[in-house]
Specification:
Layout (H helix, E strand, L loop, with lengths): L1 H17 L3 H9 L5 H21 L7 H24 L2 H20 L13 H15 L3 H9 L5 H25 L6 H24 L5 H24 L1
Helix pairs in contact: 1-2, 1-9, 2-3, 2-10, 3-6, 3-8, 3-9, 4-6, 4-8, 5-10, 6-7, 7-8
């Protein structure tokens, strides 16, 4: 449990700096010692709480038109991801999670950030992918963020829109997990209660630090952590 709390504080420290990415950091590290059926619902519950708090302070900046078009496809993708989490064997999921995590890690390290606006039609694959990876890995952030940053120019609007999108979409996924019985584990409930403190400390500390760091520098730090997390998952499967 102490290891879990340390991982949570580190993950939410990163989220406090970047505005997202807690699941990409926490889930692969938690998966080294905990089953995915424990790690994913735990991070989802904590992310939902964090987004509810952060979104509530930025309601006016949120772009609700983007949220309205992303949500239906995100919910559809979440149904597919939740079913896969409950039914698929662990090994292929861990390998996919490792590859998924390392992909975004290398993307950050080498600065492979596309530029220019995209059509709203991209909300369909972004929503489906975000919902599915959110339910399966607890990491809906990258597909949503990639879409929103190509649609919204203001960083505050991106953060507020993502927070509210995750609040609604995450609430739907929590309902799916409750229906599947994944939230009924007493160990998970205890970890959630204890995890609120390191989550709050990590968010607060990260928010203080982000003003003193360049965006490109932080992306490389986060990318390195993601690559290491993904590599450790591959080592776990190999062992």
């Amino acid at each position: 449990m102490l290891l879990v709390l340390c991982i949570l504080m580190s993950a939410y420290f990163i989220r406090g700096i970047t505005g997202f990415g807690s699941a990409l950091i926490a889930v692969p590290l938690l998966a080294l010692s905990q089953p995915l059926q424990f790690a994913v619902p735990l991070i989802l519950a904590l992310d939902f709480t964090a987004s509810l708090v952060l979104g509530g302070t930025n309601t006016k900046k949120a772009n609700w038109e983007e949220i309205k078009i992303l949500l239906p496809f995100g919910m559809l993708g979440a149904c597919v991801g939740a079913y896969a989490l409950v039914t698929l064997p662990t090994t292929p999921i861990l390998l996919t999670l490792g590859a998924f995590t390392m992909f975004f890690g290398f993307r950050n390290i080498f600065g492979l950030q596309p530029i220019g606006a995209v059509s709203r039609a991209w909300a369909v694959p972004a929503g489906l992918t975000g919902g599915a990876t959110g339910a399966l890995f607890g990491a809906s952030g990258p597909p949503y963020i990639m879409y929103l940053t190509r649609r919204l120019l203001d960083k505050g609007a991106v953060r507020a829109t993502f927070s509210w999108l995750f609040t609604i979409d995450g609430g739907f996924r929590l309902a799916l997990f409750l229906f599947a019985g994944l939230l009924l584990d007493p160990k998970l409930q205890i970890a959630y209660g204890l995890g609120l403190v390191p989550m709050a400390i990590g968010l607060y500390s990260g928010n203080k630090v982000h003003l003193d760091m360049t965006s490109s520098g932080m992306l490389r730090v986060v990318g390195t952590l993601l690559v290491l997390s993904g590599a450790m998952l591959f080592l776990k499967v190999a062992a």
